[in-house]
What does this fold into?
Amino acid sequence: MKKRFDWMTIPTAIAMTMAIATSVYSVPVQTPLTAPLSISGNSGGSQASQCGFIPAEPNQVIVVNQPSPLRLTLQGQGQPTLWITGPSNRCVMADTNANGTIEVPGVWDQGTYSVFVGDMAQSGQPFTLSITQEN
It folds into this structure.
């Protein structure tokens, strides 16, 4: 008896592998930044936190080698949040008048920071996160 092979299995497996790989893969960046960094993805995740629903792994890791003036700018849809863990933990939520924009400027102390792009609702919405070094 011949088995019938479902050819949709291969594209589905590839798509699932790519989705998992892109959602947990984050290359740490170190200060000083040589150029602004921009990443895109979908906000939120399955883990409930004090800062909405977040992914299991950080969207970005930042290693600050010495106190540095940095600006994080998140442009997202839905109800985006930024949860930053490290030497100073903070949760920043988009203001209702900000149209999904969150800005976090300031001098960051030395240490390793994990940045999670969350969402107050458990819906994954598109976002762009920019990290720049200020003078």
Notes: The CA atoms of residues 7 and 13 lie 11 Å apart. The helical segments are 9-24. The two ends are 72 Å apart (CA to CA).
